Amino acid sequence: MGVVCAGLGLTDAPIEFENGLEVVYVDLSNNELSDLPDLTFANYPSLLHLRLSGNRISNIGNTAFHRLHLKELYLDNNLLTTLALMPFPPRC
Fold it and tell me: Coiled-coil annotation: which residues (predicted)?
């Protein structure tokens, strides 16, 4: 299941989508997101593909991607200058 919320002028990432447990693709590109706080995507354990391109993201919380096993993450065209060492879960 995929959710496309591209170009909607969103300032925050949606907390919940219907059937969130089944969501494997989320496109939040070309919005006005500036901050991804801790546990932003915690309600989407099946998420594999995440598009965040073309926002105003300048801060990503250390656990924003906690419990995710992303195969693709797009962060191009944002305002990031640094990225913490642990925003991604360690692999076993």
Answer: none
